[in-house]
Amino acid sequence: MKSHQQFNTDLTRRSWLLLATSALTGCGGGSGGGGGASTASAPGTGGTGIYQGSISGFGSVIINGVTYDNSQAVMRLNDVVVSQDQLRLGMVATVRGDRTAGTASTVDVWSLAQGVVSELSAGQFKVAGMNILTSTTTWLYGTTALTTGDYVSVWGLQADVNGHSWTATCVVASSASTDAVSSGLVSIEDGQFKLNGLSLSGAVSSLTDGMLVRVQGTWGSASRLSVVSSKLIDSAVVAQSQGHVEIVSDVEIEGVVTTAPSGTGFMLGSITVAALPASYSPPGAKITVGSRVEVHGAWVGGVLKATQVELEDELNIGITEIKSVLQQFTSLADFVMQGQRCNATGVVLSPTMITALSRKGAVFKVKGVKSGNWLNVSEMELDH
C-alpha cells in the first residue's frame, strides 16, 4: 500500500478520477487464470487514455459526462465480450480511447461483489464479507427492493482506504448462484490468506499482503472462499513496462475521497492524488472524506497527478441520457430502454413520434432524472 498523504483544501465541483471497480473498477485486462492476479496493459501517449466512472447514459457510452462512441469498441462484462444492451446505468466502466475525440477502443465492466445479501439495514448491506453503502443515486435492477437472502451483483466505488466499504452505483438482483466475488485488501496472517474477513483457499499463490484485488470463486463454507481467479483492481491504471511504472498521460477517474484533504492532495479509494496545482470545480466547494469526485490528470510513478478536480452532487449524478430502441412499451408512463424503466407522462409528443412508438426498431433519445428505480423523462425525441 502507498503511504497516505493528507491534504486540506477548498476543492470544487466536477473533477475527475475514480477508483471504482466494477469493480469498482480496476477494470482492465482479463481475470487471471489459475488464480494469478492479472495486470493490464495501459495506453501511454499518442492520444489514448484511461477513463473510469459509473455509466450515466447510453447511445454511445457516457462516463464522467463525456460521450464515447463505442461502435467500434470491444465491450466486456466480467471479461466476457458483450453487446451494449447487456450493460446498465450505474455500472462502473473503464474506457480506453481518446477523450478529446470521444472514441472508445475498449469498454471493460467488472462487478466488485457477488453473493447473498445479509445484514440489510437502511443505506447498507453486506455481501461476500463487504460493506455495501447505498443511496438515492444507486441504480437497482431485477427487484424493486432488496431483501435478505437476495443474490446480487454490485458495482461501485471504493469508500475507505482498506477496501472493505464500497459505495454502490448499481446493484443487480438475479437468480441464486454458487459464484462469489469479493474485492478489497488481502491480509496474510500465519500463512492464512484473508479478504474482508473471509478465509481464502484455492488459487491464492499470487496474492500478497496489502494487495487490492477482486477475487472470484465458490463457497467452501459460509466464511471460506475457494478462489478460482483474481485480478488487481488498479491494473487498468498501473501499467508495467519492463519492470517500470509507465506514464499514462490522460486519466480521468470517478471515486470517493477516503482521507481528509490537505494542501497537496488526498486519497481516492487507495489511490494517492497529488492535487497541487489543480483547478477545482465549483469554486468554493469543500471536499471532505466521503465526497464523490471526478479527477482528471496523469498517472505518474504510482500517483495520480491531478489537473482538475470536480465535486459531484446528487442532482448531476441522477441526470441520464439514453438513445436506444424501445425494448418494451406499455404506455408513456411505463416503457423500457436499455433495460431501464422510464416514465415520460410529462412530455408532449408529436404525431410522428406517437406513430413511431408502435413501430418495431424505432430509436428514441430520452433525457431525465433518476427517481427511485425509474427514469423520469423530461425530454424525448425520435432519432432519425
Give a structural overview:
By secondary structure, this protein is an all-beta fold. It folds into two domains: 1-312, no CATH class; 319-382, OB fold (Dihydrolipoamide Acetyltransferase, E2P), CATH 2.40.50. Helix content is 3%, strand content 51%. It has two helices and 35 strands. The protein has helices spanning 314-318, 351-356; strands at 20-21, 37-38, 49-58, 61-63, 66-68, 74-77, 80-81, 92-98, 103-109, 113-116, 118-121, 124-127, 130-133, 139-141, 151-158, 165-174, 179-189, 192-195, 198-202, 212-221, 224-232, 240-241, 244-245, 248-256, 265-268, 271-274, 279-281, 292-300, 303-311, 319-325, 328-331, 334-337, 340-343, 363-371, 374-382. The strands form four sheets. It has a 19-stranded mixed β-sheet that branches. Strands 1, 10, 11, 12, 13, 14, 15 and 16 form an eight-stranded mixed β-sheet that branches. A hairpin with a 2-residue loop joins strand 6 and strand 7 (80-81). The protein is globular. The model is unreliable at 1-46 and 239-244 (pLDDT under 50).
Task: Quickly count the helices.
Answer: 2
**Percentage of residues in helical conformation:** under 10%
Taking all Cα atoms into account, the compactness measure Rg is 20 Å
Average pLDDT score: 84
* Overall domain count: 2
- In terms of DSSP E residues, the strand content is over 45%
Low-pLDDT runs: 1-46, 239-244
| Count of individual beta strands | 35
> What is the straight-line distance between the termini?
51 Å
Task: Please outline the major beta sheet.
Answer: 19 strands, mixed
Any idea what the shape is? Answer: globular
